[in-house]
Amino acid sequence: MKPSSSSHVRRVTELSVRHAIRNFMTATPHTIGRKQSLASAQDKMRECNLRHLPVLEGGLLAGVLSQRDAYFVETLAGVDPEKVAVEEAMSVDVYSVSLDTSLLEVARGMADHKYGCTVVTEGTRVVGIFTTVDALRALVAIAGPGGAT
Questions:
Q1: In terms of DSSP bridges, do strands 60-66 and 96-98 run parallel, antiparallel, or are they unpaired?
Q2: Which residues make Cβ contacts (< 8 Å) with residue 4, sequence separation at least 6?
Q3: Which residue in 29, 43, 47, 113 has its CB near the most CB atoms, within 10 A?
Q4: Fold designation for 20-143
Q5: Which is nearest to 126 in space by CA: 95, 102, 88?
Q6: pTM passes above 0.85
Q7: According to the model, what pLDDT value does residue 13 have?
Q8: Domain ranges in the chain?
Q9: In the β-sheet with 32-33, what is the strand arrangement from edge to edge?
Q10: pLDDT at residue 69 above 70?
Q11: Residue 3 gets which letter from DSSP?
Q12: If we measure between CA atoms, which residue out of 94, 79, 93 comes closest to residue 39?
């Protein structure tokens, strides 16, 4: 028997809500100011076991610093990580989405553009980060035993 269209819409809506990025992101991520030193950022990344830090200026998202970019800049001749600001190494090309963006849309965008993370915002406020590790955890949650179909 074919389900009624209203029950189908309700099921799709439930799946969309359940699979919103808000349910899979790391909430309240560590951040750093764009004028902070690269050494300070590296210390925070090591202490907290992070590979991406949203960069803020005046509380607004200004970029993302990846561990790889920070290491690269540090290897350049004449670079002193204590004197170089985060803004010198960060990427300003940030993939950001709202809390209600679907997991599928985020994963597709990350894969298509080879992004290592997505910053999740609510208005102008950074409220989460979704990384490739979070994506793998989401896959396990959805496709693993007892996951959604």
A1: unpaired
A2: none
A3: 29
A4: CBS-domain (3.10.580)
A5: 95
A6: no
A7: 45
A8: 20-143
A9: 32-33, 52-57, 60-66
A10: yes
A11: P
A12: 79
